[in-house]
TrEMBL record:
Belongs to the arrestin family. Gene3D superfamilies: 2.60.40.640. Transmembrane segments: none annotated. It comes from the Eukaryota. GO terms for cellular component: cytoplasm; plasma membrane. GO terms for biological process: nervous system development; protein transport. This is Arrestin domain-containing protein 3 isoform X2. Residues 94-224 form the Arrestin C-terminal-like domain. InterPro entries: Arrestin-like_C, Arrestin-like_N, Arrestin_C-like, Arrestin_domain-protein, Ig_E-set. SMART domains: Arrestin_C.
Length: 234
């Protein structure tokens, strides 16, 4: 992206020398560093040493780059909510409906935070159901013309809620889903690679498919600012 040349015609005598230098990263909307299954985003710095009558000596080192993603943007501060319902059937008998309404406090989070998930559950069936939440990472790799793609899914963290007994209604269950501290930030500004995160909240029902509600979240590196308390009254 940028080249930084040292002072020309500098001759170093034999021995150990320390030469400090800086390199300004250009302004731009660059994606964060990432190492994936089918592709990577790598930033590196190359240093060359030229000696008379010798081939240039080259040293390359990789460094980590993180885009600025601010969790204080209005659309990332807005809460998320969703619901789903189903009725279990067994031969000619149908049980009461099972419903789940789920909400989170916001859409933007920072690695290392806990995602608070609030579930309102109603279990009209004859079976015990258990809420469960999973943080899923989705890696999508494209060719340049996006004619071909490869998808890689990975579960990063999970948590179980309290079981809900049969014929129970208006049961509230809170779950705290951890985001691993070293998780890569969301990547949406690269033409050949996307990195997204989803919170999968499911209601596990014995002998039946899970009832699911999915939330897309964005992983940021600028946390939500805590509101400052008003000054004391004089």
């Amino acid at each position: 992206m940028q080249e930084n040349n040292a002072v020309p015609n500098t001759t170093l005598q034999p021995g150990t020398h320390v030469y400090p230098f800086t390199c300004q990263i250009p302004q731009g909307n660059f994606p964060s560093s990432f190492h994936g299954v089918h592709g990577s985003i790598i930033y590196s710095m190359k240093v060359e040493i030229h000696r008379p009558w010798h081939l240039a000596k080259e040293f390359v080192t990789e460094f980590n780059f993180a885009s600025h993603i601010d969790a204080n943007q209005p659309h990332l501060l807005a809460p998320l909510a969703g619901s789903n319902t189903k009725t279990l059937c067994c031969l000619w008998c149908a049980s009461g409906p099972i419903s789940m309404t789920v909400c989170t406090e916001r859409k933007g989070f920072v690695p290392g935070e806990l995602v608070k998930i609030i579930c309102e559950l109603s279990n009209g069936s004859s079976r015990t159901v258990t809420p469960h939440a999973t943080l899923i990472q989705k890696q999508m790799f494209y060719t340049h013309n996006k004619c071909n793609r490869r998808l890689q899914m990975k579960n990063l963290a999970s948590v179980d809620g309290q079981p809900v007994n049969p014929s129970s209604s208006e049961v509230y269950s809170d779950m705290m889903l951890p985001i691993p501290p070293n998780t890569t930030l969301t990547i949406s500004n690269c033409p050949i690679l996307e990195l997204d995160y989803t919170v999968d909240v499911s209601l596990r029902i014995r002998g039946s498919t899970d009832l699911k509600v999915l939330f897309p979240i964005v992983l940021c590196n600028i946390p939500v600012y805590a509101p400052q308390p008003p000054p004391p009254y004089q």
